């Protein structure tokens, strides 16, 4: 099974699909429709009909089946991520303009969502934040410092704060024995949003 973690972090077109700079959406190769781990559960939608042709816009062709996040990543979900890996926020995963408040001092930071904003999409997330969020999901939502066991390896391999030295391949295969999780590509997001397998006499479009 292929999974496409369209991390709806507010990326694409806002964070939802393009490279997240607003809303986080994830995609990936998952074994089930709900990405369940210790701290948060993210609902996903299966997108099949692998090998479809691109739309007239040039977007939407995906050679593998995958799952994509059903909703944008919320403030509550992102706060759980911060509480797991940002007691010392080495790579600045938190932004003061988020609807997430930080208390304490470095080494003992904790995070809470502003009242009434728990289910709203998280904003002020950049590409590197989103990639680390995807790695954290892929690694099983561990708790600890921002290092190779939590945020620095997974689908994306970081060599420093803003350098990704390598990344996994989007396919129907596992990566290092794990379901892969990544920021949704434009084609993955476009297909999930617009593709209709019943069009063109059943050939899709």
UniProtKB/TrEMBL annotation:
Gene3D superfamilies: paralog of FGE (formylglycine-generating enzyme). Residues 64-196 form the Sulfatase-modifying factor enzyme-like domain. InterPro entries: CTDL_fold, SUMF_dom, SUMF_sf. It holds the Pfam family FGE-sulfatase. This is Sulfatase-modifying factor enzyme-like domain-containing protein.
